[in-house]
UniProtKB/TrEMBL annotation:
Residues 1-24 form the signal peptide. This is Glc operon protein GlcG. Keywords: Signal.
Length: 185
């Protein structure tokens, strides 16, 4: 196991994120589980989120590259239980869209990642949770995670890979923000 990956595992465990690895898995095929410990006691402000957002996107980029996928990543934070505004940051990882072909109309990955984020902002559940049918403008696709904090919600979403890979990338972003903000206390 590389020292960089070992360090990531140590950080994840320190902040209550349980990495699940079988002995046969390499670091690039690791599955990172959702946060075990609650982040509900974590106070977040737009300024503290903004300070961590870039690093979270770089963590998401690194995970996407390990999985050999490209696409669009977004992280966001909003105050309270009902969204009125949010602070967000986005990063393109290799490609923003899949070009149309003779047999496929193509995909705007940036539009899809924001649709995932918008669904989570409304449902307060991970994207694709199926707590209700998708509304116009939503797809109901998995790939985004939302974390409740004391002051609001943190969202991380990715689009460009298979659903399970998008979720894995998003979990790394959310874990990075939570870890950074816990460390800043």
């Amino acid at each position: 196991m590389s020292s960089k990956f070992s360090y990531l595992l140590l950080i994840l465990c320190a902040f209550g994120i349980s990495p699940i690895l079988s002995s046969a898995q390499s670091p690039s095929s690791a599955v990172v589980a959702a946060p075990r410990a609650s982040a509900a006691d974590l106070r977040v402000t737009s300024a503290s989120f903004d300070a961590s957002a870039g690093a979270a996107l770089q963590s998401m980029k690194a995970r996407a590259e390990e999985l050999k996928i490209g696409g669009a990543a977004v992280v966001a934070y909003f105050d309270g239980d009902k969204i009125e505004s949010w602070s967000s940051k986005m990063l393109v990882v290799g490609r923003m869209k899949d070009e149309p072909t003779a047999t496929d109309k193509g995909s705007n990955l940036l539009a899809i990642v924001y649709a995932k984020a918008a669904e989570m902002a409304d449902t307060l559940k991970d994207s694709g949770s199926k707590v209700r049918p998708p509304m116009t403008g939503e797809f109901g696709w998995e790939g985004g995670v939302i974390v409740r904090v004391k002051t609001g919600y943190i969202i991380a979403a990715f689009s460009g890979g298979k659903s399970e890979d998008d979720v894995a990338v998003s979990r790394v972003g959310a874990a990075k923000i939570v870890g950074d903000l816990r460390g800043a206390r």
